[in-house]
Amino acid sequence: MPVRLEAVYCDGWDAGVVNPLTSVTAKARDAVGEPYTVLLLLNGQLCAVMDLSWSDGYCRITRFDPADRQLSRHLLRGTDEGDLFLREARTWDGPADAGKYEYPHVAARTTTTYGISGMRTDIVEPHGDRGARQESTSERRPPRLPIPTFGRWNELLRLAGEASAEIVDAVQHELPVRVETRAPWRPPRPLRPDGIAELFVSGAIVDIHDKRLHLSVHQAGELRLTSGRLVAADPSSLEFDAEPFTVSVPAGAYPVSISLATFLDDPRHSRVCAARLDVNDRPTVRWELALRDGQEPIDLGHREFFGFGVDAGMACFVDADARERMKDVWLTLDGLIDPRHRTIDSGAMVAWSSGWGDGAYPTWIGYDAAESVTCFVADMLLFPTDNDEDDD
Known about the structure:
392 residues
């Protein structure tokens, strides 16, 4: 006989019900794919939390034991065919006397990750954070499920290890409730390439906080790509963190432009907004994040991106074949304060100062209507964008 689970709807769970919702409101969000959370109670006690956002192809199911300790966490993501696949499953097991905060660190932990193409990785940590780690890979396609209709979550729960259940709306509950200005979780909406083309409009005036800046575009010369495999990196780390992007272009020499922002109230103060390597002159109709081998966009969370790290306040474009030869050239760049960019060794490298300084920066690839690469843009994240509107 199936167990009886009671559903409570809200914006999320964070040691309490955050921003409770009616069943009608939750169902309306479900219908348009907007985020909401379902808490499932067994005998009045929390046993599972489901964070759902169908427009983002996202479902996270967290199960709890009677001691309020996490037993498992299953993450499902959307496929191109419109259903869901199991991206990651993590389970914890024992010891029985561990408290809920200690438990995830000391319990035996198993993590299984699937690629949509059929690669499975299993990581077993018999003593949690405290001991050995065993990793293995195999060819196995992930479990897949259709996106369920509202209230019909049994297949999701079975996948997460929960027994078959009858799910009804809770009439009342004794969980703590509070109201917050923001939900405690967000669907995985990575950083977007908003306003990239506008960074290269010479003469534009941009406001940032209480300052006004003037944009100018400077030609930095041509970069020689002898292999066609572009690297964007901190020039001081070419021997450590400088893998080329997975998208390559034909070998050749490509012009590089630098977008520079100058403070109107202090013309001596300027910052590099972005560096663009032009592959062709056709209009860019879409952008995508430049990736290195092993990077999967599906793993990015809210406003996250894969980028290159900067520790020396400088960035550069260089061909993959020139990395070794150019690895020590950064010692001669002297911070790139004046001027803010430089072309080195007849186009073997183009370097520039990195926006506000050290940090991590994305590179975007532009495509034309025929799906050919138009450009690579290293974005120095100088200006806030619409991506920041929900941030503190």
